Amino acid sequence: MKKTAETKVPLLSEIAERWSPRAYDTTYEVSHEDLLAVLEAGRWAPSANNLQPWRFSVVTRGEALHTQIVAEAMAGFNAAWVPNASKIIFISVPSLTQDGNPYDIAKFDAGLAAQNMMIQAQALGLASHPISGYNHDVVSKLLGLEEGRNSIAAIVLGKSTDPSSLPGPALEREIAPRTRLSLEEIVLHGLS
């Protein structure tokens, strides 16, 4: 299924074609090489002062940790489709800088890394879907993250499949057209 973005000017195909599917092929396994490429893309994201606050924790469908995270941390809407994907890449950041101040920019930096990974996944023909709808404390504990480092989001990674495999509300969201606010609504100054 394609959902090419309707844009005022042409974009890189990896950006225009990337969207966040929920229907994942339960038999497809992301290769080690493709996983490394996705993680490398995250590694090379820009970061404030080059501190690279992000850390990635990969769990694979079928592993005991994956099963435990799905059972204990995924709830509601995401619990219906996330388990089908080949991988879940959890992203964590520290809450404080080394000198003890709030590390607010860490989340922005992690977002840059996540976007790099999703664009790389798209270039490889993979599907990705960022999520934050899970129990972050449970995931941080199950992943054994050091004190002060917290899971903030995850990227679901795999190969998309026929949306009819999804239950009701998920299917409706899957087949709905992509929409975005117009540039005029989001650019507050300098568009003219």
What is this structure's SSE topology?
Elements: H1 13-17, H2 32-43, E1 55-60, H3 64-73, H4 76-79, E2 87-94, H5 105-123, E3 127-131, H6 136-142, E4 149-158, H7 168-175, H8 183-186
Antiparallel strand pairs: 1-2, 2-4, 3-4
Helix pairs in contact: 2-5, 3-6
Proportion of strand residues: 15-25%
The H-and-E topology, N to C, reads as HHEHHEHEHEHH
What's the CATH topology name? NADH Oxidase
User: Which sheet architecture does the biggest sheet show?
Assistant: 4 strands, antiparallel
The strand count comes to: 4
How far apart are the first and last residues' alpha carbons, in Å?
35 Å
Mean pLDDT: 94
The helix fraction, in percent, is: 25-40%
What's the quick description here?
This protein is α+β, with helices and mostly antiparallel strands and 192 residues long. Helices cover 36% and strands 15% of the residues.
Structure characteristics:
192 residues, alpha+beta, NADH Oxidase, four-stranded antiparallel β-sheet, 4 strands, 15% strand
Description:
With 192 residues, the protein is an alpha+beta fold. Helices cover 36% and strands 15% of the residues. The chain has one domain (13-186): 3-Layer(aba) Sandwich (NADH Oxidase), CATH 3.40.109. The chain has 8 helices and 4 strands; from the N terminus they run H-H-E-H-H-E-H-E-H-E-H-H. A 4-stranded antiparallel beta sheet has the order 1-2-4-3, with helices on both faces. It is globular, with a radius of gyration of 17 Å.
